[in-house]
Amino acid sequence: MTTRRQFIRSTLIAAAGSACVSETIQAGETAALSPIIDCQSHLYVPEMVALMKKRTTDPLVYEKEGAQWIKMGDWHRKILPKHMDVPAKIADMDANNIKVTALSINDPGPEWFENDGPAVAAVMNDFIAQIAREHPGRFVGLCVLPLQDRPAAEKELQRCIDVLDMRGILLYTNLVGAWPDEPQFRWLFQTAVNLDVPILLHPAKPATTEQVKGYDLTSTMGNMFEDTIALARLIASGLLDEFPKLKLVCPHLGGALPYMAGRFDHQVTVLKRSNQNLQRKPSQYMREQVYFDIVSPQPLAMKFAVEFSGPDRLLFGSDHPWVDPKLILDSLRSLHLPPEHEAAILYNNASKIFKL
Ligand SMILES: [Zn+2]
Fold first, then answer.
1. Which residues crowd ion ligand 1, with CB under 5 Å?
2. What's the CATH code of the domain at 339?
3. How many A from CA of 42 to the centre of ligand 1?
4. Helix (H), strand (E) at residue 103
5. pLDDT per residue as tens digits for the range 111-170
């Protein structure tokens, strides 16, 4: 296993200045509006981008037409300038009355770096925690873990919660081909319950990449299938009965799964398929034990989610900087929900989950 020190020394990369930007933008004068917590918002870690530029195997970073691109197999994404710009993120938060952001890295996570995973996780988590420290009250961190190395992951999780004051775990929907419901990851859910921290089930490089890479549909379709499949598997595994106190947040309105809940229920209750581990209908687990974030800029989809899950099970998220928070906020506000329902979605639910 590579230690953090060895890792840093071997890469000889410093993200000078990037992680230490002092806050220059003060909160806007928008106190009359309901405050907002953004539960899905990312930054690339400059030190990791620099490292990935030196790699010859995936995940790696290359330059094209003046931009940096990240390559994971057949998935190529342009890194946006705001992905490494903390003042720009704060400016966008202020412009949208976002009081606090639960900040996380942008993928790839530590599981992509084999034996370097523990060192990579430490670099990533230290970066996110440092930003939270430098901007008190504006950010809380979500940690990532080197799940290919359980002892290291357990240690890093404890460090992130106890030492770095991080408030949750960003768990990828697939871990270089493995799914979070598989037995080797069961300890993580138990530990999250013991520590009383939420797990955000964030899309990873899609297991369906081969099927969706045409026409550049990997993010459009593949990431949403990730949420759909990973959550369906977690439910079908019986994990939510095993951990009734687990705080599980599924982004993007759960992909397509809530929309297909009737089919899932029918398969389980009538056709007796995927019912081996279940005590209730799949839709009940979705409604009673899963939080969804509303990063899905379609008012009709949000309306369905409000009716399906209720306002106490939804959280505001933007997926900044991929998505302008205003797009999600405008979609939500177009529903003209009762103020108390809107406040629950925008602030109160997340405030409880992240212990703000
Ligand atoms: Zn995201």
1. 319
2. 3.20.20.140
3. 7
4. strand 98-105
5. 999 999 999 999 999 999 999 999 999 999 999 999 999 999 999 999 999 999 999 999
